[in-house]
């Protein structure tokens, strides 16, 4: 009757109280008492209580309910905690005006609640382990119970756990996070400390939770995930809410995020090459004695087949590669080799073509267009490795479209007929640009990999 009365007296029941209430709802023979006063559950004291006519009861974590008197029952509770969440139910004299227990609690018994582990939980944890993600479990429950559940779903190092009540300083929290992965008796403010400590160690932290006591950590995390069935506070601060309340959806969410970011990085690299090329040439040709070598219609040809169509295809392609490094740096590293080669190629064509070969503006412009398109094709090839059927088809369309525009539609795009000097100059510049491009791409690639290795 004490347990049924406590569950029924809770005005804002948590999942534990709801489970107890549901149990006794199927047993109408047990009739709960009418409460005269209730003391709600809090993460600090870790128990709830209620006073009835002539008696008062509390239910919560044994150590927090019984204090030092719990030592006599520690072994029994420890055996139960290995497989279930264990709550102590005790009779007390009453509560003071601040809601604290009056008198010495008299233990009535233990309540064991078994959490239902989803069939997909171990598979989901395994997915994140395979992806190199370190999984930490932080809970307000008994660390032995938390460790038992963590071991069932395959959390690494679950056999070694920490009682967070023993962690008194930020330094102790940081040290524990380097060595352990399972933590129990964690207070709400400590959960935030855990997130901050991981961030200070250079980690990108994702936090999942569904209760009010998770809101501080959710707000601090780099990525916060809440369950739709969780508290309003958790849903409001979370960046992502799982409407099906199933953590097994996270691999799909991660895959979609990777597809978006990785493909956006590749598309941005193409756009940035054109931006850097246009800005640099605009400044240089204000100072040089030559006319700007591109006509607007020619930029349309280059943009369509080396930027627009490739970006569209690459943006929609599946991509599950793990995100590494920083977005802007990743984009710049892939863009600089193409931009440098294109600028130097245009300058070389203008200098040699005009000064040494005596080519007119139309001929120089034609060579600049084709050489810039060639650099764009080389970047697309680099971004497409490893090749797939879609990427191979994209390369065929890019090359075919550029050739079509330069031959059958040469009048529309201002492409002049080729002469022997033009062909020789284009071939030499294309070979030189290819060699320089691959050398620069390798240099920047190795530099970038070294930076990523230092961050890992």
From TrEMBL:
Keywords, in A-Z order: Membrane, Transmembrane, Transmembrane helix
Membrane topology: Multi-pass membrane protein
UniProt key word Membrane: yes
Cell location: Membrane
GO cellular component: membrane
InterPro entries xref list: ATPase_P-typ_cyto_dom_N (IPR023299), ATPase_P-typ_TM_dom_sf (IPR023298), HAD-like_sf (IPR036412), HAD_sf (IPR023214), P_typ_ATPase (IPR001757)
Listed Pfam families: Hydrolase
Keyword Transmembrane helix: yes
Domain of life the protein comes from: Bacteria
Transmembrane region(s): 268-290, 296-316, 336-357, 363-381, 393-413, 419-444
GO molecular function, one term: ATP binding
Protein name according to UniProt: HAD-IC family P-type ATPase
Species this chain originates from: Gordonibacter urolithinfaciens
Phylogenetic placement of the source organism: Bacteria, Bacillati, Actinomycetota, Coriobacteriia, Eggerthellales
């Amino acid at each position: 009757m004490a347990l049924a009365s406590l569950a029924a007296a809770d005005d804002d029941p948590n999942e534990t109280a709801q489970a107890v209430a549901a149990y006794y709802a199927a047993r109408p023979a047990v009739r709960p008492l009418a409460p005269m006063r209730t003391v709600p559950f809090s993460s600090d004291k870790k128990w709830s209580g209620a006073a009835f006519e002539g008696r008062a009861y509390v239910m919560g974590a044994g150590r927090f309910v019984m204090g030092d008197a719990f030592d006599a029952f520690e072994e029994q509770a420890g055996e139960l905690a290995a497989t279930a969440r264990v709550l102590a139910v005790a009779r007390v004299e009453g509560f003071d005006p601040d809601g604290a227990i009056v008198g010495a609690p008299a233990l009535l018994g233990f309540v064991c609640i078994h959490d239902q582990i989803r069939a997909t939980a171990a598979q989901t944890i395994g997915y994140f382990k395979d992806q190199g993600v370190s999984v930490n479990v932080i809970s307000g429950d008994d660390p032995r119970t938390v460790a038992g559940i963590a071991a069932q779903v395959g959390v690494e190092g679950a056999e070694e756990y920490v009682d967070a009540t023993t962690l008194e300083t930020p330094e102790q929290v940081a040290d524990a996070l380097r060595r352990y992965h399972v933590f129990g008796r964690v207070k709400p403010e400590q959960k935030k400390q855990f997130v901050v400590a991981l961030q200070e160690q250079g980690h990108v932290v994702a936090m999942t939770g569904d209760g009010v006591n998770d809101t501080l950590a959710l707000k601090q995390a780099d990525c916060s995930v809440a369950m739709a069935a969780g508290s309003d506070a958790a849903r409001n601060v979370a960046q992502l809410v799982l409407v099906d309340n199933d953590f097994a959806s996270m691999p799909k969410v991660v895959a979609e995020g990777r597809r978006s970011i990785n493909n956006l990085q590749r598309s941005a690299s193409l756009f940035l090459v054109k931006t850097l090329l246009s800005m640099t040439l605009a400044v240089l040709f204000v100072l040089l004695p030559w006319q700007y070598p591109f006509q607007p219609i020619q930029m349309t040809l280059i943009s369509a087949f080396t930027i627009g169509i490739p970006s569209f295809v690459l943006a929609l392609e599946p991509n599950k590669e793990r995100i590494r490094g920083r977005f802007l740096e990743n984009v710049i590293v892939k863009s600089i080799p193409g931009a440098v080669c294109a600028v130097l190629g245009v300058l070389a064509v203008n200098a040699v073509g005009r000064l040494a070969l005596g080519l007119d503006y139309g001929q120089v412009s034609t060579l600049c267009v084709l050489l810039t398109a060639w650099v764009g094709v080389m970047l697309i090839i680099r971004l497409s490795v490893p090749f797939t059927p879609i990427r191979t088809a994209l390369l065929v369309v890019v090359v075919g479209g550029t050739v079509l525009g330069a031959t059958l539609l040469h009048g529309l795009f201002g492409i002049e007929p080729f002469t022997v000097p033009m062909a020789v100059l284009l071939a030499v510049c294309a070979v030189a640009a290819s060699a320089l491009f691959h050398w620069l791409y390798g240099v920047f690639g190795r530099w970038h990999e070294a930076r990523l290795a230092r961050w890992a």
